[in-house]
Amino acid sequence: RAKEQGRNRFCYYSDDLEYQFKQRQSVEKLLRHAIEQDKIEVFYQPKLALLTEKIIGVEALVRLRDDENKLISPLDFIPLAEETGLIHALGQSVLKQSCIAAKEWADKGHNIKVAVNIAAKQFTDGNFCNLVADTIEQAGLASELLELEVTESALMHDFEEIKIMLSKLSDLGLTIAIDDFGTGYSSLSYLKLFPVDVLKIDQSFVRDMLTDTQSMDIVRTITSLAHTLNLQIVAEGIEEKQHLNSLIDLGCELGQGYYFHKPMPKEEFDKLLG
Ligand code: C2E
Ligand code: MG
Ligand code: MG
Ligand code: MG
């Protein structure tokens, strides 16, 4: 629901163009400052094996603060970051922090895989694969401990180009996840064409699966598709014990959601790991 609100937030003021314009300008300014001053923050949300509830990974989620130190939702600045090109610096900061964190956890004996969201626009950087390779290397991270989350729509932008890039990235040893699976482009042929390892069931299906049979059917179908294609499956947005039980019944192995943990600063996750 927060996500829907985030997406529609600007619409409430659609009759007030000046407000919209100022809003955009102030977010862009915050973003530029945060990048210049190295103040892009990353929160981590644990990802668990549903049967054992053991933490096996985290998703890295970017955070930005306003002048009053309040967190601004990525839904309110990622699109702007893409339009302005700031996404390249922002994405690099998140990737770097995530790789360094995962290396630190590994050194402490915890094999925590870190999943980093990549925006469509980042693939327009011809040097993106090299950047990823360099970042992993400089952090000293085993590439198996990095996952990149890409949305279906991002893949459809420049099919051939992205196919080559994902293959290069996959050859580095990291894994590729399709984020928000089921909400985007509906052709499944790309699952064969791209080196995909993981499907993340969109949280909207998980949220509604207990009350809406269609959502339940979609979760069941995606899970069985993943099994057929030998892909890992991650359920997003698990908020209730009943979500968890149903997902386990369907054979879904991995998941994340407020039922377990909300995204948290690194220090907090460090404590959780113990
Ligand atoms: P996403 O990649 O699908 O990330 C999952 C979102 O769902 C996160 O929102 C997370 O906080 C939220 N979430 C997790 N568990 C639950 C739950 O049980 N219930 C509910 N209602 N929500 C849950 P967040 O952090 O606000 O991020 C929103 C979106 O912004 C992300 O969706 C992703 O598309 C984008 N994003 C976040 N960080 C980055 C980043 O570093 N780079 C890029 N390119 N995009 C990012
Ligand atoms: Mg994601
Ligand atoms: Mg998602
Ligand atoms: Mg999502």
From TrEMBL:
Ranges of residues in domain EAL: 24-274
Name recorded for this polypeptide: EAL domain-containing protein
Signal peptide residue numbers: none
